Amino acid sequence: MTARSKIIGTGSYLPKRILTNNELEKIVETSDEWITTRTGIKTRRIAGSGEETSEMAAEAANKALTMAGVTAQEIDMIIVGTITAEMVMPSCACLVQKEIGAENAFAFDISAACSGFLYALEIADRYIKNAPDMKILVIGAETLSARVDWQDRNTCILFGDGAGACVVTGSNDEDGLLSSQLYSDGRLWQLLSLDPAPRCYCPVVDYETIPDRKSSYDGSTFNMAGRDVFKYAVRGMGDAVEILLNKEGITVDDIDLMIPHQANIRILKSLAERVNLPFEKVYTTIQKYGNSSAASLPIALDEANREGRLQKDDLLLFSVFGGGFTWGVALWRW
Ligand code: UT7
Q1: What is the pLDDT of residue 49?
Q2: Which range marks the domain in which residue 22 is found?
Q3: What's the pLDDT score for residue 204?
Q4: Is the pLDDT of residue 128 over 50?
Q5: Is residue 304 part of a domain?
């Protein structure tokens, strides 16, 4: 049997600063009621000094290594899914390598917006199939707060910062990654973009209040046709789930837990309804952390894992959707 990719450790890092909806009411014309009912978000985390994308990623990676019982020197490869690395060069992954002391690894970033973690996991899986002994750190890390226009109520209320990581290696057991499928549709890029490209070096700043953050705003803008993104996200992930379940010859009743990208509670409810999955089986962190792009799935995975929500042999469904458009699904036997 070909080796399967197995997650042997998870970790996450959330910035200390909690930004509430009530605070946002003082920055843009919005209300706790609007944000809660339209998105499900109550608070989000905002990175500050010492919480650059690579620093949060390294913290999450160290926690995943500890859980896995693997040293940084044993890591062969580091992949970071991110659209908010501090610099265009070097990659966030190389900074993580330096920070954790993984000198035997090679390291690179991939850009697939909110789908970045699942894309990275899929790449790791291809390496594991050829070299099952490899130990790979797969990370999703973002500092969207440094790119958001804090005067644009359409987008600034949605996003948060953080990082999640996992250690992946090969296994000959029945568990691990059973199947996955990635998709892209570049024709629709204008429905969700961040342009002009963010400043190459966009450090987070030390600050107490969010209005101060306006001074660090780098001029890039989230262009988002919210309703269209919503529609495509539900349809894209819904169709992908159905195709995957059919391919594997299982039904939605076999799924123990779905861990999706966290963009909007209404997207998650519509997705669950579309594929006939009871919403109790959808793991959510959106209320606490908002949308942290590529970091949202691995943060949710780590929280579910540490809460004891994942039992051995559980069938897990990952689903993601983001700018590009990019999207995908994966089925895991835990
Ligand atoms: O990770 C992938 C990235 N993004 C997404 O997945 C986002 C997907 N889309 C969404 O989550 C939702 O479309 C949003 C949460 C962004 C918006 O919710 P919506 O129910 O689609 O609202 P809308 O854009 O249709 O706006 C409805 C109204 C508008 O006012 P009018 O034109 O009806 O008078 C907006 O101007 O709500 C207004 N509005 C706000 N009001 C208070 C927009 N943002 C706000 C706000 N506070 N923050």
Answers
A1: 81
A2: 4-173
A3: 47
A4: yes
A5: yes
